[in-house]
Design a protein that fits this description.
By secondary structure, the protein is an all-beta fold. It has a single domain, classed as Sandwich (Jelly Rolls), CATH 2.60.120. The protein is 0% helix and 70% strand. The chain contains no helices and 7 strands. Strands 1, 2, 3, 4, 5, 6 and 7 form a 7-stranded antiparallel sheet that branches.
């Protein structure tokens, strides 16, 4: 339910749900119409492998081509099944595009995961 007619809550898939065995790089999306924070939610289901690790982070870009890490926008390292971790990114302190990157390591690691971005877009009259 949207209680503010001037704004609209949106959910974007920053990384689609899948069984991941290697590093995942999400598709960049334009955040120029968003206001305030965007909350990235990293949802982890079953994890397997020997010493599996997943290090997630958010990156920004001016041109949706060359990306750099957003300071402070890193997820706690995941090493076990079933976790839900969120990171907030202030749209006023980043460039036009954001994306998720999850670096996977270990011996035969598998992370069943998805990442969502939840934010508020300003609706133009």
């Amino acid at each position: 339910m949207n209680l503010d007619p001037k704004n609209q809550s949106t959910v974007t898939q920053a990384a689609v749900s899948a069984a991941r065995t290697s590093t995942v790089t999400g598709t960049g999306f334009d955040v120029s119409g968003y206001i305030g924070n965007i909350t990235f939610v990293q949802a982890i289901g079953t994890v397997s492998g020997t010493t599996p690790t997943l290090d997630g982070k958010i990156q920004d870009s001016a041109d949706d081509s060359s990306y750099t890490d957003v300071s402070g926008a890193t997820f706690t390292q995941v090493t076990a099944s079933t976790s839900l971790i969120s990171v907030n990114v202030d749209t006023r302190s980043v460039r036009k595009y954001l994306r998720y990157v999850g670096t996977i390591a270990g011996t035969t690691p598998v992370f069943n995961s998805a990442v969502l971005a939840i934010g508020t877009k300003q609706v133009q009259p």
